[in-house]
């Protein structure tokens, strides 16, 4: 009779021990997951296009043709994905540094970003830092709307700036709003040569 009473208590202790071990393993797994960064920031120096920026993952490169003010141009893109967001710097190489062509390129980028999410192309002035010190005037945008054939919610954070024969678009396209520190990391690191 004593054996029967001991066996259930022993099984109960083993079950509690196993449950405790499982809880510890889950907690440790959660802690390790929390330590693995979604944002693995690295500084990228793009000497060809004249900028430096921090990106949250190893960037990919792409290039596509664009038509601005009736002229064919090329837009180079450097993109990195992290979490539910794409971080990108696009650079349009202009045929010359004519201020009228610069304005046309800025307008092309501004309206294109807004059109992609079905929003008004609202922007306000911002200063873009130069790597050597100083700043140049640019535009800043925050747009929200729906994008793509699935009409998925997107938030776009962007800065646009013209300098010489380049027009730049630094942008974050996110499926949900990002923590401000991730936005600040990206935009505060974006500097022109």
TrEMBL record:
According to the record, the signal peptide region is 1-27
**Keywords per UniProt:** Signal
Name the record gives this protein: Lipoprotein
| Organism of origin | Paraburkholderia lacunae
């Amino acid at each position: 009779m004593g054996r029967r009473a001991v066996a259930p208590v022993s099984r109960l202790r083993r079950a509690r021990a196993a449950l405790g071990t499982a809880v510890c393993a889950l907690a440790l797994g959660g802690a390790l997951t929390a330590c693995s960064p979604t944002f693995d920031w690295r500084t990228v120096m793009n000497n060809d296009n004249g900028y430096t920026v921090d990106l949250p993952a190893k960037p990919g490169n792409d290039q596509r043709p664009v038509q601005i003010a009736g002229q064919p141009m090329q837009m180079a893109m450097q993109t990195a994905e992290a979490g539910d967001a794409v971080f990108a710097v696009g650079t349009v190489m202009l045929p010359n540094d004519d201020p009228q062509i610069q304005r046309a390129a800025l307008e092309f980028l501004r309206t294109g970003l807004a059109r992609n999410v079905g929003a008004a192309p609202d922007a306000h002035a911002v200063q873009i830092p130069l790597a050597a010190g100083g700043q140049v005037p640019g535009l800043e945008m925050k747009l929200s709307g729906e994008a793509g054939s699935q009409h998925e919610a997107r938030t776009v954070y962007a800065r646009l700036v013209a300098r010489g024969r380049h027009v730049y678009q630094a942008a974050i396209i996110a499926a949900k709003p990002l923590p401000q520190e991730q936005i600040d990391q990206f935009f505060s690191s974006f500097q022109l040569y």
